[in-house]
Task: structure prediction
Amino acid sequence: MSGASGDGGRLQDLLDIMRRLRAPDGCAWDQAQNFASVAPYTIEEAYEVADAIERGDMTDLKDELGDLLLQVVFHAQMASEAGLFDFEQVADAICRKLIRRHPHVFGDVGGLPTTQQKAIQHKGAWEDIKAEERRQAEERRGKAETGHLAGVPSGMPALMRAHKLSKRAARAGFDFQVAAQSADKVAEELAEVREAAAAPRPPGGEAGASPAIFEEVGDLLFAAANLARKLDVDAEAALRAANQKFERRFRAMEALAAARGEVFENLDLAAQEGLWQAVKRGE
Result:
């Protein structure tokens, strides 16, 4: 390995290690992987980076960024073995993309009078450039998919994809004018969930949610994600925060019950609700 003082530094070491792990005499587990099997780990590592940032743990962030970098190297190594591309080409592609998407930095766009005006122009230019890149990518792949929603990855987390889809539609003018209208849509969808849930089930039907309930709950979640976008709230981050709050409060409820000599799961709902309210008051 080249070591930190070598030409490629530790990045080259990482590339060499990954190549060695995938070699015939390397690690059996690494050898057995493919793009599809590694993809879930890539998503997981990205979330762990976000978690370290939310916790403000910079030591953990350093480690998690390394884990995420490994995912890029892993995919690039597999692509190199298949004769598709290598890590150098991945790095070259993102360098070119960053330069292309920042003409106000790397190209002559004339003097802009204020930082705010630069930001506004950059945001519009960024979206226009991305749209053109998507169009060109579709042409290269020979796909017929066009329009404002083309290229939104189907593998994105559902909440993030809902945000992306509604944002794309909004760019085409298909959007509520104010957030209150989005809130009304949430209320409308909730009413439809209630209606579907109250509908009588056929005797002998399958257990679980009916197709109607399934569909209406999906509509409700999409409407809630759209409302978050209208309020400039990152729905994914907001839900993560809500998850953390619920976990914190639930653990505190269990601890409070134990301190009182009670077994949490043996309490009725009213008693458990009392614990919940006590925990909230104590925060």
